[in-house]
Each structure stands twice: as C-alpha cells, then as structure tokens.
Request: fold
Amino acid sequence: MESLRKYLTNKNLYIANIVSGGLMILMALICYSGVGNLSNSGSSWSDYASALSNSLSGLSFACILYYIDLLLVILLVIGWGLKIFYFKEKKEMTVIPFVISVVALLFEIYGVSTVSALSSVARMDFGGMLSSAYNLQNIESMKIPFIILFLAHISYLIVAILFMRMDKKGESVNSTKFEKGTENLIKKLQTFARDPKGKKTLIGIVSVCAVVLVGCVGFGLYNMFKKTPLDLVSDVQVTFSGYDGEGSATIEGTADYDHTNADITSFIYGVTYEVENNGELSNGDEVTITANYSKETANSLKLDVTKASKTIEVEGLEEVYRTWDDLSKEDQKTVLDRTYDKVMKKAKDTTYQYFGKETITVNSLNQIAAYYTYAKGSGEGSLKLIYKADITSTYDGDTVNHVEYYMATASGLKPTKDGIGKISVDVSYLYSQDDSEQEAIEDAEDYRVDAEDKIDIEK
Reply:
C-alpha cells in the first residue's frame, strides 16, 4: 500500500479530476456543435446529409468519451476513498473532491442506458435502437440529471484547480475561517456522538447513507450488465406429417417472453427454426430442432438465450410399404391371389379365332418375374408380375397349344387400419413365343419395368 500511496498523491488525483472535467466539457461542445451543424445546414439534401453524417460521427465520439470518463470517475472515487478511509487523510482538500466525485459517479451510472441508446443511433445500429426504444423515448427526462452531472464535473474541475494552486503555495483550507466553522461543527458532532442516543443516530444515518450509496451504484451496475434469460425452444410445439421416411416437421408457437416488451416481441418474430433432415424423417428418428437468431440483436437487447435447440423423437408419420418385405405375409398373399385371378381371367378370355365357337383351356399359369417400386410423394407401392400362361385352343375339332406372357400391375399398395386396403390390378398382354421366358423378361425390362426393381417372391 505504501507504493500505491507514492502515486496516490493529491496532485495526481487533482489532475485526474481536471482531465475528467475537461472530457465533460469536450462532450458538451461536441453535442452542441452537432446540433448547431444540423440547424445551420443548407436547404439542399446533400448539405443536410453531410451535416447529419458529421453530427452522428461527433455523437459516436462523445459516447466513447463518456465511457472513458465513467472509468476515470470510478478510479477517482476509489483513489479519494483510499486516501480518506485507508490513509486517514480526512482533510477538506481530500473530502470535498471525494464527495463531488461520488455525486458525479452516481449520475454518470444513471445515464449509461441513455448514452448506450444514443450510441446505437450514432452507429445506425437498428437492433440496438429497438432494444433502447424506451430510453430514447424518455431522453427528455434525462435533461436534469445530465445538467447535474455536468455541474458536478465543472465543480471538481474548479475545486481541483483551486486546491492545486493552494497546495503549490503551501496554503491550506484549514487556514481560512472556514476551518474554524468546521472545527466547531466537528466538536458539536463529537459531543453528540458521545451521547449514547446520538451515537446510535449517527450510526443509523451513516448506515442509511452507505446503503443508499451502495444501492445506487449496485443498481446502476446491475442495469448495465443484467440480461433477460430466454428459452427459444422449450415452449414451441412440433408436429410431424407425411410418410414414414419422407416426413416433415412443422413448428408452431413461440418462446415464452414478455409480450409487453415491443423490442423482445420484434426479436421473437425474427427467430426461425431449422429441423434436422426435414423432409426425410422417419418414425423413431431423434432429430434436433434449432432456433436461428441474431446474436448481435440478442446482445443489444440484453437477452441471455439459455436454450436454442432441443432433441425430439419423430412420431405420427403414415406408415408405407417401401419394400415388398414391409407387407405382412397375409397381405402379400392377398396381393398375389388377386393378381393371379386377374391374369387367369385375362388368359381365359384370349381369342385366337374370330369365327365360330372356340374353347380356351389354361393348362398352367406361372409367375416368372417380379418387380416392386415405391412412389415417393404418394406413399404407395406397386408390384409388377410377369406371368407365363400355357394355353390350349380348340376350334372346329382342331387343338393348338400356345404360350402367352402377361404383365400384371398391382398398384395402390398402402397400409390402412384394415390392412392392405383397396388394390388396383391391371393386366396387359406382354409377349407371345414358345420357350422364351428370358426374352419376355428382357422385353419387359426394356420397356415396362426397371431391372433394378426386380425382387424374389416365393412361387
């Protein structure tokens, strides 16, 4: 502490008071000059724009000086306080600057929010302006506190200059008549303090003053640094729709916030939500919902975003038959039986003679190839089967054997609460040639189906 005392001289602190007072005067001149430039700008838009730009630059610089001065005043209060309460230099030449510095500090902390709002205006920070809308609307009410702040700075500037001159000449405030009045006042206070009731009263007054001082400083610092906690995801509702494997998520609702605060409301409306793998969701997936927001705006609004993402399980998507194996054995049998019956009917209706009565006998009907496709977007599957039919035609006593190939398409394969549901089966003529199963399959794969969709089905 002795090394600190070496630098913590009255002269150094007086110089700091003078610098602080000079900064305040410079800030006042910059603001006055900016207003004057706007008032005296020409009638043309370019002149006004130039004056406005210069004024905003000056205002931004003044705000920077304000924060520098705030730091300097805090150091002054600490410095004078150490001299008085730690080094026991309880003289008028230390007490008076300390008291004025404390007053300046209280009003300077009180004005921080307004200066922050003005800084946002100067920097054209619209997010900051939104967050400081209340302070900008009530800037007129800050006129008196800023005047008191200015006078406090001028006061300790004058006091510092006066005391420096007196200190240089070896004079002391104690040599004036003021000292005698002060001594008499101190004696009265000492007498009052010796009385038990008076002592309690003084302790109470000092305690109240200390509490008020600490409370004012604490409240100012609290307002400077406090942030409003905000959870962006816990209160939003997520619903899933679409088909399993290609589902989408819809976000509804907003975060729980203070709806009376227009600035936060504007911020909330700017929040967007992103769902991991949206459009490709499947039941049972664990997906992350992330809130996208402007961190710069959140900081300017003093918002502490405590939660911006959450994980949720996908459910409620419509089930689909993406592959043939997704169908139950019972549903598979139903599809195969219906297609077989349709193809059999088609084969029996085959005609080789156009005159007279012809008898058609289907000796055998066998499935020789199968293909399964799933239509993304419709949620429906489709099964294509190639059948080979051995047919005998009897006409006018003559018997002729034929081999025919048919393509059967079972479409609309989709799960319902009643099982496979309604199936549409279409049968078309494919190919006709003896002993040519492979050619029939190749012909189908050339024009009707994709070879990659081929599957194996138990015959």
Summary: The chain has 14 helices and twelve strands. The mean pLDDT is 80. Residues 2-175 form one domain.
